[in-house]
Design brief:
The protein has about 850 residues and is α+β, with helices and mostly antiparallel strands. Helix content is about 20%, strand content about 30%. It has 16 helices and 49 strands. A hairpin with a 7-residue loop joins strand 8 and strand 9. Helix 3 crosses helix 6, helix 11 runs parallel beside helix 12 and helix 13 crosses helix 14. The termini are far apart.
Length: about 850
């Protein structure tokens, strides 16, 4: 009887089982399989410690811990235990020695050790334990492969045995009818990135794990045929020089920028040709209220004119290759674009657009999860430090790349970055690791870790603030202005750096005018005598009559100063509690507004106290710019801000660094204004709560109040015998990540739970919830604009599952169950920033003379 495998994953699973040692293999050892590992021969244990202490990332002691936990749950350690019991011995002793002793105390046997070492392929150590095993080929190369010039040629063979098989590929020489050895091709996979006619022929691979004839095996022959690649369409020529890729410290894509998908000669054809559509408009389903974006990328001789049609009716002409419009129900239909130039026209393919009233079901996609971020550290001159980053991504192989101050560190591709003999002060700075899955074009960066080199440990700081707080606001989702890319990243970057400097940080995105003023009022409640305060704004802005104004994202078209928030208003509110230091960093343009405003009334009487520093991203009459990652100001500021130098020296260093880059100082020149009477104050000054401990704790409680996330929830569904688990995370003070896991599937199968309904006050960042795990099933949704909640956050969770019918011949039925969950008022929702300010002249509270908060 023939059984077919309907699920390819079952085949992969069987292959994986075939590679693992059987019970009989683990028992058939050179030593007693039940012997405790601490009783094994000393030579074996010394080699094991040396291999695990000095091995590469793929088979060092950390990988050993991970593999042991996968195979045997009783050998699972928490991250804290790993670092405290083993990791802290890296410099003083052997982590592997401590690990082996710990596992011996847990009665790990030689049989279990053999299975773990086999997963790591530590042949050198296994030679003490395992007996010889004949080679058995389990994967043969494909017998016949037909390719086209330029395709990837890939042949693979896999065999089992011990010692582990060595490989050597051969190719048949037609003139001599003998196989010739392919130099350097000694891996189980033979790969040619771009094959040519010369690569056609017959191949085979030799596998051996000894010198005798019985220890040598050959794979079957694999025939490769290579055909001529058909000529490309008229309109552009083949670029034989290859693609021109540039390394970048972050893998952020730019909206509607498709240059990464084609070559430079494709973008600017050398010959005048008819338009040729490189990228057609795509069919899509979008949520009601979202913005519809259709793109039609064409090649040929510019300029192009794009005529857009909906349901065969013309409705718009653009000079750009894309069109944006709000997704109303009237926009449903079939779209296409006719692209014209001086030589003719061409019609795109049809794109069908539908508008959804509810949140679509989640799309399964891989997501990199950072398990452990590098930690900031301060080391003595001449000392050493190690940064570590651990991540995972549903079984995919990860690639690590370290950066310092945004620049790639060549040759540092491991999860750990070790820096020895730190005698160069230039090694100070911000370190970050980019983790990526190249095959999926997926990447994620770790938190920033700051390295400080300590020259004189006996010199006390000159100033000691009683507390340090920072309010960071980024507006980018504008309705009547150009959308910005950098504010979210800039706020996140500075937040990490200020936290490293022991600041209490409040991060907010996309605030209206009322919400910004309310946020400043709340922020001012955290200030008082002895406190350092930093205010940062990034978004659209302008300058009128010497005053800077911040534009809220919901500002009307043709806004004036009445619709915006002035920097002087912010300073006035922050001055009332009388902090020791106020730093305002204004990352905005300083050109005049396009619409003339009525003269501003002189209603603010700022009392200057010699405690204020202004850092402007640019000079008067100039724009402020951003790239695909950061604004230019933050790009440089992040390099210096954590140094133990005065705040004026920090900003001066930023000016000097930009002054060395003509491509930047010709665009914007930062400006510094200060009336500091104590100019040596530094953002790195250490906090001292002596005499103000009670006030410090009061401020801490008030700050924590607006950063409270909902507690983890376990939601039972009795009729399905199912249990859901909800967890919550937040990167910003008004953004909440909701992770929903099907903890117990009960009587259902293929169950998945996700948010299907939310209050109208908030919004979802992504149209499709992300499915971050299949076993157990886990989805992630991001709720934005939490500050707009006027009542408890009540969401509906949709549980979609398969109900197996009693009749086995009947088809499975998909069913849904809705669960309503009340999350209260999370994060800054408790502050009710949406409330209009009744009396802006009300004095702010100063806790220097009060014992409790009102």
């Amino acid at each position: 009887m023939l059984f077919l495998c309907r699920n390819p994953k079952n085949w992969e699973h069987r292959h994986m089982l075939a590679r693992m040692l059987s019970k009989e293999q683990c028992r058939n050892l050179l030593v007693d399989p039940d012997k405790n590992i601490c009783d094994l021969p000393s030579k074996l244990m010394l080699d094991l410690k040396e291999c695990l202490d000095n091995g590469p990332e793929t088979n060092n002691w950390r990988t050993f811990v991970s593999e042991a936990a996968k195979l045997y749950k009783r050998y699972t350690f928490s991250y804290h235990d790993i670092e405290m019991k083993f990791g802290n011995r890296i410099y003083t002793d052997s982590p592997s020695k401590a690990l082996i002793n710990e596992l011996g105390a847990l009665n790990m046997t030689a049989e279990e050790l053999t299975r773990v070492l086999d997963q790591l392929k530590l042949e050198r150590v296994l030679m003490y334990l395992k007996k010889y095993e004949q080679i058995r080929i389990i994967t043969e190369p494909v017998e016949m492969t037909e390719l086209t010039e330029g395709d990837v040629l890939r042949l693979e063979v896999e065999g089992l045995g011990f010692p582990y098989p060595r490989h050597q590929w051969f190719k048949l020489n037609p003139s001599t009818s003998k196989y010739q050895e392919l130099q350097g091709q000694n891996q189980k996979v033979y790969k040619v990135e771009k094959c040519s006619f010369e690569d056609a022929g017959t191949y085979c691979c030799r596998l051996h794990n000894g010198k005798g004839n019985s220890q040598i095996h050959f794979s079957r022959e694999a025939v490769v045929k290579v055909k001529v690649r058909p000529l490309k369409k008229a309109g552009y020529e083949e670029d034989t020089a290859g693609s021109n890729h540039h390394d970048a410290p972050y893998n952020y894509s730019v909206a509607l920028d498709r240059t990464q998908f084609y070559r430079q000669k494709d973008v600017m054809p050398e010959k005048a040709v008819l338009p040729y559509i490189l990228e057609h408009p795509k069919s899509q389903e979008i949520m009601k209220g979202a913005t519809l974006v259709l793109n039609c990328q064409a090649l040929g001789k510019p300029p192009f004119v794009y005529h857009w049609y909906r349901n065969n009716q013309f409705f718009s002409t653009t000079d750009e290759s894309y069109i944006k419009m709000p997704s109303l129900s009237s926009q449903i239909g079939t779209y296409f674009c006719i692209v014209k130039n001086a030589f003719g026209e061409v019609k795109s393919k049809d794109a069908i657009v539908t508008v959804s009233e509810s949140v679509p079901e989640p799309i399964v996609q891989a997501e990199i999860e950072i398990i452990s971020n590098p930690k900031s550290c301060t080391v003595e001159y001449g000392g050493s430090c190690i940064f570590s980053c651990e991540a995972r991504c549903r079984g995919f192989q990860l690639h690590y790349q370290w950066y310092k101050d945004g620049r790639k560190l060549q040759g540092h591709y491991k999860s750990e970055l070790r820096l020895d003999r730190l005698q160069d002060m230039e090694q100070q700075g911000n370190y970050m690791c980019m983790v990526s899955v190249p095959d999926l074009n997926l990447s994620r960066h770790s938190n920033i870790a700051c390295l400080n080199i300590k020259m004189d440990s006996h010199k006390p700081p000159e100033f000691n603030p009683t507390d340090k707080v920072a309010l960071l606001i980024g507006n980018y989702d504008y309705k009547n202005e150009t959308e910005l890319k950098a504010p979210e990243t800039d706020v996140s970057t500075l937040a990490q750096l200020f936290r490293h400097l022991d600041f209490k940080v409040v991060t907010l995105l996309n605030l209206t005018k009322t919400e910004m003023l309310s946020a400043v009022d709340y922020f001012s409640e955290l200030l008082g005598k002895g406190v350092y305060a930093v205010f940062y704004f990034c978004g659209h802005g302008f300058e009128e009559d010497g005053k800077c104004y911040f534009v809220p994202p919901d500002a009307k078209a043709g806004y004036t100063i009445e619709d915006c928030v002035s920097a002087e208003n912010v300073l006035c509110r922050m001055q009332k509690p009388d902090p020791d230091l106020i730093v305002l960093i204004l990352d905005i343009c300083r050109i005049r507004n396009r619409v003339e405003s009525a003269p501003a009334g002189d209603i603010m009487n700022i009392k200057h106290k010699g405690n204020t520093v202004f850092c402007y991203a640019t000079s008067f009459g100039m724009f402020a710019y951003e790239d695909a990652v950061n604004g230019i100001l933050v790009k440089y500021l992040q390099k210096f801000i954590v140094q133990d130098k005065s705040v004026l020296d920090i900003f001066t260093q930023v000016q000097e660094a930009i002054g060395k880059e003509p491509k930047h100082y010709t665009l914007q020149i930062p400006e510094i204004r200060s009336n500091l009477l104590q100019p040596k104050r530094s953002l790195a000054d250490k906090i001292s709560t002596k005499g103000a401990t009670k006030l410090y704790h009061q401020r801490t409680l008030r700050w924590l109040e607006c950063h409270q996330k909902p507690e983890k929830k376990l939601i039972p569904i009795p009729e399905l015998q199912m249990e859901l688990e909800m967890e919550f995370q937040s990167d910003f003070s008004n953004v909440l990540h909701v992770i929903t896991t099907v903890k117990k599937p009960g009587i259902s199968t293929n169950a998945v739970a996700y948010i299907c309904k939310i209050p109208s006050a908030v919004s979802l960042k992504d149209m499709h919830p992300k499915m971050t795990s299949n076993n157990p099933t886990r989805t992630k949704s991001t709720l934005q604009e939490i500050q707009k909640l006027t009542e408890d956050l009540v969401i509906d969770i949709c549980v979609r599952y398969v109900c197996v019918p009693p009749d086995q011949n009947a088809s499975p039925m998909y069913k849904c169950s809705i669960v309503q969950v009340n999350l209260g008022l999370p994060l800054v929702a408790v502050l009710k920033l949406w409330k209009p300010i009744e009396n802006e002249a009300t004095e702010h509270e100063d806790f220097s003379d009060k014992n409790t908060y009102s």
